[in-house]
Amino acid sequence: MKNKILLCIADGVGDRPCEVLGWKTPLQYANTPHLDQLAKDGQSGIMDLYQAGTPVGTDLGHMCLFGYDLKDYPGRGPIEAFGESVELLTGDVAFRSNFGTVDEEIKVIDRRAGRIREGTKELAAALSGMQIEDVTILFKEATEHRAVLVLRGPGLSDAITDTDPKIEKVAVKQPEAKDGSEAAKKTARILLEFQKRSHEILSNHPVNKKRVEAGLFPANYILTRGAGSMPDIKKITQQLKFKACCVAEESTVLGVARLAGFSTMTDPSFTGNIDTNIDKKAELAVEALKENDFVALHFKAPDLMGHDNKPKGKVEAIEKFDELLGNVMNRLKNADSGNVIIALAADHSTPCERREHSGDPVPILISGKNIRKDHVEKYDEVSSAAGAICRIRGKDLFYTLLDYLEVTKKEGN
Ligand SMILES: [Zn+2]
Question: How many A from CA of 299 to the centre of ligand 1?
Fold first, then answer.
């Protein structure tokens, strides 16, 4: 029977013992019958996403989960671009951007143009496709005041300073080359020209004229930060010839998945929090398994609770994740999707006491009828550490899973 992989990622689920939980971790404290069943039916271990003792962001954590390395990491700009479905080519330079409001002296009045919600699609369309020297501008609106800017052309560099001053009532910063290279100087020149031309176009745009009439801040300037250049990396799905899909709501996760060559599924009822629609998530994941060899299912809430230092909230988020897995397992009983191997993992730990990501390893497991079983019967940081997988890295988990799909290259003869 053909194996399929369902990798379920509980964002930031790893933690440390918490006093309010009687010095248990949220995973140890939570009631998780489905996660524990998966532990019984498979093998467990712990995982350092990149390397022991190095905290990673959600973006790099997911890159490791999808088989990449730190050297492949393109920076936030390109990942945000993929998150907004802008397909980048090698050499493109992408920036995270804001629609902002400036006065006649190009001083920032509002970094978010009054948190503009409507009309950004029309404004972006008025800028995208602009040609400056031999460089083409791609510009796409994102949620509210956010947008992505991509410069496409020969000889560009991401060694460019941010133009967003991050505070208001000061002048927009000029883009500058961080090094003396011709490529960086050219990129700075083109970005400055884009900002000048776009300021003129935006100032005269009907959307902004209406905003001014209504007493709202016009979105008349593009502030940029987080320049990143698209490295020469292959989509892992093309390289290893398998079909993959990611079910998620967070644009960072969707961006990494698209960069890796995954198709994506999302839904407006996915909130990225504890009240997300887990029934719909389970439905989409099981649907995706029909057409794909590998499906990643992302659940955000545990990370938010870690950042807010809410151990009990994290317990609740974990119990919701357990419910999601129960829903998935139930649906799989009646689905004709081949032999689905379920793996549990996280993209990093977010200990409540730290309110930030840490380098603590995360618990993992691989579960299924044809998976070797060890003696671990519970999914948590301590129980999992006693399992047969021992301690591996994110990339190792990915390649271990892909070997069940029989797409990993045999070495030797
Ligand atoms: Zn994360």
Answer: 9
Residue 339 falls inside a structural domain: yes
How many separate domains does the chain show?
Answer: 2
CB 281 within 8 A of CB 270: yes
- The CATH number linked to 330 is 3.40.720.10
What is the CA(60)–ligand 1 centre distance, in A? 9
Segments of the chain scoring below 70 in pLDDT: 1
**Do 330 and 250 share a structural domain?**
yes
How many angstroms does the Cα of residue 191 sit away from the middle of ligand 1? 31
How many angstroms does the Cα of residue 155 sit away from the middle of ligand 1? 34
Specify whether 100 is located in the same domain as 225. yes
Q: How far is the CA of 135 from the centre of ligand 1 (A)?
A: 34
Rounded Cα distance between 291 and 298, Å, is 18
Tell me the per-residue pLDDT of 90-116, one tens digit each, with 9 for 90 and over: 999 999 999 999 999 999 999 999 999
pLDDT at position 1: 67
Residues 115-143 have pLDDT tens digits of 999 999 999 999 999 999 999 999 999 98
Q: Is 217 left (phi over 0), alpha (psi -120 to 50) or beta?
A: beta
Q: What pLDDT shows up at residue 76?
A: 87
Q: How far is the CA of 128 from the centre of ligand 1 (A)?
A: 31
57 CA to centre of ligand 1 in angstroms: 6
Determine, yes or no, domain membership for 411.
no
Q: Are residues 225 and 238 in the same domain?
A: no
What is the full DSSP assignment across 315-352?
A: HHHHHHHHHHHHHHHHHHHT---SEEEEEEE-S-B--T
Co-location of 247 and 396 in the same domain: yes
What integer pLDDT is reported at residue 337 of this predicted model? 81
Q: Is residue 125 part of a domain?
A: yes
Residue 350 alpha carbon to ligand 1 centre in Å? 8
Cβ neighbours for 169, distance < 8 A, ≥ 6 positions apart = 107, 108, 109
Task: Tell me whether residue 409 is in a domain.
Answer: no
Give the Å distance between the CA of 8 and the centre of ligand 1.
Answer: 13
- The pLDDT, as a whole number, for residue 336 is 81
Of 229, 264, 283, the residue at which a domain comes to its end is 229
Supply the range of the domain harboring residue 13. Answer: 3-73+234-404
Separation of CA 357 and ligand 1 centre (Å): 8
Instruction: Choose among 384, 303, 349, 397: nearest CA to 46.
Output: 384
258 and 128, same structural domain?
no
